[in-house]
Write a structure and sequence with these properties.
- By secondary structure, the chain is α+β, with helices and mostly antiparallel strands.
- The protein has four helices and seven strands.
- The protein has one domain: Aminopeptidase, CATH 3.40.630.30.
- It has a seven-stranded mixed beta sheet, sandwiched between helices.
- Helix 1 packs across helix 2.
- The protein is globular, with a radius of gyration of 15 Å.
Amino acid sequence: MKNKGHYIFRKASENEVEILTELSIAAFHTDYLVGGNKLDGPPGYDDIKWHFDMQKDGHLYTFQIDNRIIGGAVIFIDNNSIYIGRIFVDPLYHHQGYGIAIMNAIESLDNTINSFYLDTPIVNKRTNAFYKKLGYVETSRDNECINYKKIK
């Protein structure tokens, strides 16, 4: 990471949902630059109510550097596995290692968890390369998405 400041990754509070929604929109709207559709993203990425629901259910996380929210994640923990619904980073902080930091934080949440799952659109070159770089292995695909898994 270019900024060597202290980072915090934790469950989001209700008063952080609005900024996390704005960051989600901004981040996913850059996907058209790497093969995605313009002004598009995963279900709920631009819906504040959806983000409030994720926060209320304990699935929305915030990623902060020096007390500034620069990204977030939606994750689902079940027994010994985590499904990573999405991660997002403020476009102002892209290409600085913060996506890797978020993934490392997710993978370090609980030492008893050893399996991580996610999916990403086939057309998104950036996310597919990113997850492969982090050791995720393709398990299946359909016409739209590639499913990945990583075992610690």
